[in-house]
Amino acid sequence: MAAPFKYNYAIVSRIPDSFKKQHPDVDLEHARADLEKYVDLLRRLGIDVLELPADEKHPECVNVDDTAVVINGTALMCCPPERQGEVNVIRQTLRRELGLKIVEIQNPSKVALEGGDVLFTGKEIIVALSQQTNEAGAQAVASAFPEYATTPVKIPNGYHLKDLVCMAGRDIMIHGSSRTVEDIMRNIRRACSYGYRRIHLEDDHGANLCYINGTLCHLGHQHVSRATYGTLENKIDFPRKALDIEHLLKGESCLTRLALLLGKVKYPKKIVSTLD
């Protein structure tokens, strides 16, 4: 098995003009600049970035993490409503460019699953039962990755699990402090097989972050309270990189949704990132 949170490749997508139709408050030029900053950070962390062209038919194509769950060289294709065109592109990319094993959902008419509801802790998998993901979706995750225990946890509608709870390092689980999140964390503690060090943040949205190749990537001080930023400074004793992605946040994108991260790949083609 590959070491958890060690990544060699990332898939990202350019932002289509149609994104603004979905999110009128977003300045497209600045949102695209935000994405460039994120991709540049991925490169500096040693990741080869495979960039997909903008898909005008699918305004949300920038949120690539919704489309698949990738663990140890296996990709389970998800089924976000009305976004199968995006899933097809990601499927072809994972299979043809990166040589991953692809697992398809059986009986997709009965299954709801989005990648943002699946948290891999490095030891087990937590799947949120939400507006986007149902029990059949959680069962599909368990079947695709039988080497790990899979735990379903209910969360309120309107959220993805990784909006509120993420891994901030090996065995470090980070989350907000609202009543909603505390209820979710009680369910996680009761159901999970392993214990984790927990870090509480004042802001729920500040917990959406990525631990990549030994570095914690999180929102900059422009986006979180002084208390949340201070907690990250005081309790994280390994490298951190803060990002300002103001315009992508206005479009309901977040750090975990913007890239599909992959570990070692057996038969990759030459990956060239051209986002500049």
Task: Describe what is shown at a glance.
The chain is 28% helix and 22% strand. The protein is α/β, with parallel strands linked by helices and 276 residues long.
Give descriptors for this structure.
about 280 residues; three-stranded mixed beta sheet; alpha/beta; 8 helices; disordered C terminus
Shape: globular
Number of helices, counting only DSSP H or I runs of 4 residues or more: 8
Profile the largest sheet.
Answer: 3 strands, mixed
**How are strands sequenced across the largest beta sheet?**
2-1-15
Backbone CA Rg: 17 Å
N-C termini distance: 34 Å
Task: Provide the β-strand percentage band.
Answer: 15-25%
User: Can you give the mean pLDDT?
Assistant: 93
Q: Show unreliable segments.
A: 272-276
Instruction: Tell me the total number of β-strands.
Output: 15
Q: Would you tell me the structural class of the helices and strands?
A: alpha/beta
Helix content: 25-40%
Q: What is the multimeric organization of the chains shown?
A: single chain
Question: What order do the helices and strands follow?
Answer: EHHEEEHEEEHEHEEHEEEHEHE
How would you describe this protein?
By secondary structure, this protein is an alpha/beta fold. It has helices spanning 19-22, 28-44, 84-97, 135-144, 161-164, 179-191, 226-235, 246-250, and strands spanning 9-13, 48-52, 68-71, 74-77, 101-103, 118-120, 125-129, 150-154, 165-169, 172-175, 197-200, 210-212, 215-219, 240-243, 260-262. The chain has a three-stranded mixed beta sheet with strand order 2-1-15, covered by helices on one side. A three-stranded mixed beta sheet has the order 3-4-5, with helices on both faces. A three-stranded mixed beta sheet has the order 6-7-8, with helices on both faces. It starts with 8 loop residues before the first strand and ends in a 14-residue tail after the last strand.
